[in-house]
Amino acid sequence: MSIVITVAPTGPIATTADNPHLPTQPEEIADSVVAAYSAGAAVAHLHLRDTDQRPTADLTIARRTVDLIAERCPILIQLSTGVGLDVPFEERAALVELRPRMATLNPCSMSFGTGEFRNPPAQVRRLAARMRELGVKPELEIYDTGHLEACLRLRDEGLLDDEPMQFSIVLGVAGGMAATPENLLTMVGRLPEGSVWQVIAIGRANLRLTAIALALGGNARAGLEDTLYLRKGELSHGNLPLVRRTAMLARDLDLAIASVEETERLLHLPT
Ligand code: KMH
Ligand code: ZN
Questions:
Q1: pLDDT for 202-256, tens place per residue?
Q2: Is 168 exposed, middle or buried (0-12, 13-18, 19+ CB in 10 A)?
Q3: CATH architecture, range 2-266
Q4: Secondary structure E strands in the chain
Q5: pLDDT of res. 163
Q6: I need a surface site. Which of 10, 30, 120, 196 has the fewest CB within 10 A?
Q7: pLDDT value for 189
Q8: Alpha carbons 216 and 229: distance in angstroms, whole number
Q9: pLDDT per residue over 42-90, tens digit each?
Q10: Could you give the ipTM of this predicted complex?
Q11: Measuring from atom 9 of ligand 1, which residue has the nearest CA?
């Protein structure tokens, strides 16, 4: 059995003040992704920053980052349409016009730490429809049980293909489900038959929940978007140590690591 490793090199919130090894500029993100690819990552989940490190949906920055990566490795690009809490939905949604192989789809609005993550129903439906039109595979980010029901409604309305649905069970965001094994098990048990899934465990529980997810048959995500630390009190020197550790964990569990081509087949990615 093969598992897919996704690298998430940079998230929407932390800056180099939190971890000086966080890549924020296109060249830095590309270097980090290429290194992660050599360590086994088949997918790169990307957030972009402007020169002041603020999250941005700027299409020039996004295109440049994607091009720099594509020049050096064939990793599958998954653009975040979450982008950052202060970026308007329509700017975030425009990123799918670059036709990445995948993009995130966040089905519901929610509190997100001290901020607000706005995903209004009508705009989510329009984005889902546009992604379907463009052949951009959604990675459905579910932070609560109701978010799963919202995705199933989108599927029932014909806005998502269900072959297979790809879920990220996000645990540990203040405003969503807590990062506990019980919540992971509950959510995995509720996914539709045949779904492809991974856990995105934010913060301290990242390693343990990733290990549980791998043992349960899930894929894995690794990178500084989800945790800035390799272990308690030790900042990760970039994304590579986190990706390497995930690959080692998978191999120790006797799981093969999916190549880009295998991942395309597993996810039935439109070409
Ligand atoms: N960092 C995630 C918990 C997305 O990429 O679409 C939220 C997020 C969503 O960044
Ligand atoms: Zn993200």
A1: 999 999 999 999 999 999 999 999 999 999 999 999 999 999 999 999 999 999 9
A2: buried
A3: Alpha-Beta Barrel (3.20)
A4: 2-3, 5-7, 43-46, 48-49, 55-56, 76-79, 102-105, 110-112, 115-117, 137-142, 166-171, 196-201, 220-222, 229-231, 234-235, 256-257
A5: 87
A6: 120
A7: 98
A8: 24
A9: 999 999 999 999 999 999 999 999 999 999 999 999 999 999 999 999 9
A10: 0.96
A11: 82
Model confidence at 271: pLDDT above 90: no
Residues sharing a CB contact under 8 Å with residue 20, sequence separation 6 or more, in sequence order: 235
Q: Name residues with Cβ closer than 5 Å to ligand 2, which is an ion.
A: 80
Q: Return d(Cα 2, Cα 255) in angstroms, integer.
A: 6
Q: Within a 10 A sphere around the Cβ of 34, how many other Cβ atoms?
A: 17
The predicted pLDDT at position 26 comes to 98
Give the residue whose CA is nearest to atom 1 of ligand 1.
Answer: 11
CA separation (Å) from 94 to 60, 90, 117, 220? 12, 6, 17, 27
The ligand with the least distance to the CA atom of 6 is: 2
Structure tokens at 130: 């546009």
Residue carrying structure tokens 């439109």 = 270
Residue 270: pLDDT band (50, 70, 90) is: confident
Parse the chain into domains and list their residue ranges. Answer: 2-266
